[in-house]
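Recap for those who missed Tuesday's class. We walked through two folding examples back to back. For each one, the amino acid string is listed first and its predicted structure tokens come directly after. Nothing is annotated here on purpose, so try labeling regions yourself before you check the end of the notes.
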Amino acid sequence: HGEIIILRLDNHPSQVSHKAIEWFADAQLLLQRSPPNVHEPIGKVEVSWSVDVPAVLAMLFAASLSHAHVYTAFLAREHADNHVVRPTSNGIAHSPFSLYHNMEKPTDDLRQFLVYGSPVKYLLQPETRDSKWEMHAAAGIYVGPSRKSEASNARWVWNGTRHVTVDAGCMRIYEHALVLRSMPDHPIHQPF
């Protein structure tokens, strides 16, 4: 006793099996299928997923990090995507972040964008050290904006065992090696 829900699907084998079709019919769901290997009619989520996942895997590959870091790579990718400036329907360029926060114009501070997977040295605050003779800095890998702090300058660093929230001003990042991998003449792109 209600409206028929329309489900948009691609033609994945799991969704065209006889059992799946019977289940959808019993649940009174109307199916709209895309042509094989075409994902545009499915919706923004599917199109985004087909772009975001390869981008995340490329970030992990460039940083030589394992799939255990997919979560942080995906969050870093979404953070960057939310700050990309795009034209809106009224012709004014905005980012999703600036629209959500009702900002008059999007941020133009590019210092918030750091290269995912870059090696860093971060300051160990005096309060966390047992004595002044302990190391004042530790090595780590930059893995995106922090999810433990709402501060805009809070960053996550992987120290090999856990994620540490670090102020962006309290770390030195070396992005050069990862940026060089994007050059077409880098050995990683050569077949032999």
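Example two. Treat it independently of the first, because the proteins are unrelated.
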Amino acid sequence: APRPDDVRRSAWLQTFNDVVRGRNDDIAPEDAWQAFRSLWREQGQPPGPPTATLSFLGHLIESVMRGNDRPLSQDQLQQWGKRVETTLHHVDPGTQDMPENRIRYRWNALFLQAMALLGRLDEAEHAYAMLFHHTEPTQKESQRAKMLQAYTVLLQVVRDCRGARAVLDLLVEHAWLNKYLIKAPPTDSLSLH
């Protein structure tokens, strides 16, 4: 018969792997976090390679932000932001510079989400713009989903902390990013012949 420790570890691994693969609709964010932390304590480091940990964090943030019909409290936002930020300090994104380093790009996008969750909104807004403008045009297309997730988290936190009008103000201020995120058609396709 399997030992209780082996059964628990197997359940933690299953939860971790399900979240990494984005199969976490039925997993409460807190349960996923506890499984992750248990594996981390057992292994002395975040489980899996950096790509798995970053995928886990990305799906976890999506689940946290999606799982609430009402706004999260600032304490809840800060708790999740601190968890993500602390974990990222234990993940090596590699030494290769962006934009070729997709792991570093993902790490940066998650760090921006942590900043937003921590309530450092002005700093996060500026950092989003820097990340976007320092991404090579050829990489912007392949990184669209990660940027969209990061920007969506920022908008949700702005809504929860500052209200809907602040979201509209932010969208007006960042028109350059809106075009990118919604994949606006080329201007020549809009001309009337």
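Answers for example two:
Confidence is low (pLDDT under 50) at residues 185-193.
The chain has ten helices and no strands.
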